[in-house]
Design a protein that fits this description.
The protein contains 4 helices and no strands. With 80 residues, it is mainly alpha-helical. α1 packs antiparallel against α2, α1 runs parallel beside α3 and α3 runs antiparallel to α4. The chain is globular and about 50 Å long.
């Protein structure tokens, strides 16, 4: 099972089980950070990282990650 699928399952489980929410999100955060460090930067994983930080209450950090991905997409479209 790929890291992205496991991260998505943990985030969904965090919504489903409010009492375990923070612990599940922290596990998803660690998994996402490990995947980024071992497999390199991936746009999808950076988005997951933003979603997880946002749900943990770090709105500014999550928003900055979303913005970074969007700026990268815009720059990729402009380059020939």
């Amino acid at each position: 099972m790929t890291a992205s699928i496991r991260i998505a399952r943990l985030v969904r489980a965090a919504r489903r089980y409010p009492l375990l929410r923070r612990g599940l999100l922290v596990r998803a955060l660690r998994l996402c950070q490990q995947a980024l460090s071992t497999q390199g930067v991936n746009e999808e994983r950076v988005l997951w990282l933003g979603i997880i930080w946002w749900q943990l209450g770090e709105r500014r950090r999550g928003h900055d990650l979303f913005r970074a991905v969007q700026e990268r997409r815009v720059l990729a479209r402009k380059s020939p």
